[in-house]
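[audit] Reproducing an earlier prediction to check determinism. Same input, same settings, fresh worker. If the tokens differ from the archived copy the diff job will pick it up downstream; this log only records the rerun itself.
[audit] input (108 residues):
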Amino acid sequence: MIYEMRVYHCLPGRLPALIKRFDTTTLKLWEKHGIKQAGFFTTIIGSSNQELTYFLAWESMAEREKKWTGFMSDPEWIAARAKTEEDGQIVSNITSQLLQPTAFSSVK
């Protein structure tokens, strides 16, 4: 299993809009594309409380490439993202890391 950690750095005050988009739109589209989430988190203490961090679980890099490309090019996602940004941009920056559990990790 490969885990992807993605951190969305929101513009000031836009975190609630991002959370709403995931809750009402994005997760349904991920289900359609077979994308499996492994947890969502907001920052309590850290460099910014305007961040959403989440993990995705992938069987392989090939699976990630296929499913993520399908999701990102889905016309329903493109339209939904545009609609949720009618009041302005939500995310200023996204960072992503692909992680492999160690042999002694409680997560495999």
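[audit] rerun output stored. Observation attached for the diff report: The chain is about 40% helix and 30% strand.
[audit] end
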